[in-house]
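ok so i was messing around last nite and threw this chain in just to see what happens. nothing serious, just curious
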Amino acid sequence: MNGRTAPRQAVTERTGCPAHRGATPLHGPEFAADPHAVYRRLRAQGPVAPVELAPGAYATLVTDYRAALEVLRSPDKFGKDARRWRALTEGRIAPDNPVVPMMAYRPNCLFSEGEAHRRLRQAVTDSLDRIDPNSLRGYVERSADTLIDRFAGQGEADLLGGYAKQLPLLVFNQLFGCPAALGDRLVEGFSAIFDGIDAERANALITASLSELIGLKRAQPGADMVSWLMAHPAQLTDEEMIHQLVVVMGAGTEPQQNLIANALRLLLSDDRFAGDLAGGSMPVEDALDEVLWLDPPMANYAVHYPLEDVELAGVRLPAGEPVVISFAAANTDPALHSDRRTGNRAHLAWSAGPHHCPAKDPARLIAATAVERLLDRLPDMELAVPAGRLVWRPGPFHRALTALPVRFPPALTPPVAHHVPGSPYAPGSQHHPAAPHRPVPAHGPAAAHGSMAAHGPVTAHGPANAPGPVPPPGPVTPPGSAIPHRPATPHHRPVPPHVPETSGENRWNADPMPYGPTSRYGSIPPAVTSTAKPPVSASAAPRRPWSSLAAWWRGR
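result:
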């Protein structure tokens, strides 16, 4: 298959428990601290290697780019239906193993195959395709303003818990057309799932809330994704609706928050982003490319199961053994080595093949807008601790920080009150704190959340991975030198021209269907635009360098 593939006569037979052959653990603080060192060791074993995802849960990890594409693009050899997972069906994996919620079967488009997959995925894809990017940008900007107003006057914040984690949920509530009270309940339920707090109650809250939302939309449909999904020719049942909405919202929140947080970490810590454009700094879109290549929000996933005993890269894999794709390792395959990742979107962060992410373009737009809005509002922001002291959350699948503490000059004017539907910080909401929030606790459940909600109503078993200690936000001398001034003017760039993600097959069409009174999809109201807000941060100190980025986007 490639230069590193073993000859057929040297095929290795992999059967039985890999633990006796030194399976490499992908859990614990050591892997979380430096996963790329682990990937380098695994590559020494060949394009595929045995790993332990959690105590007692074994799989084969694909670290080679070409081998990964072979698995992702060969549904005739590798299936997605987790009911093929022999170790689970035969009782060799306990039902409460921490990786089961991420890998067990759900009746949704992520775990289905064949005609069932085509039917469910087409309904989801067609509904996502109807999202207008200008309206989406407005949703993100208003949601961002709601969250920024909450902490702008404090001079410090945890951008993970107070911004990146909450923003995708607020945006989805608007895309779903949730009434405010119902949106608050969905935010509460998904937040509890990600925090690992009473997953059984959170699951019940999410299911009940979505059932109520579906009932409302059946009685009074609107220009929202729930109504579009409901009106699709696939004619989904209410139960199917719940499962598809949960996979869309779950897959678009945990990975989305990691993409936003990891991009912010890079922008605030990497010297390449610290100068003006002439000196070599890169815009936000390029920072997202860098993150998607090197630290994708879902580092290892796309679990497949051989339909029968099969050879992959010189190793024979038995039917029903989990095969996990390492997006992070495949993206950094030495065979692809290049220092020019800017504008190169052949990475596998969105997967590939028939199960590639159908929402990669909206996800990228949400992340870019969230980062730009924050930097516009608080241009003097800097990390509150050295980048090397940031702690990564343990887990085999995600690449996620436990916290992202920052500091900035407090706002000189009172924050503007907003109420975004489903906002946990809305005035009068049960989530609206009465006292200033100190966002960087040394310990706490927020650091331990997993992304099991991406796959449908979850089990009562929360993630077992506990985070490492979060560094305190004490006085730290920031590394680097003074940075040029950024003008206090929010920038509004147009939606950039589409650059195809070359590893996937579907392109996002912002206006793929005719809209109007005669359309079977009905009329779509005009896109709602947001009102520009001035920066709330003011300081006599040298400012961060986002002025050149804003000017570049306006010129573009």
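not much to say yet. Residues 288 and 364 are 8 Å apart (CA to CA).
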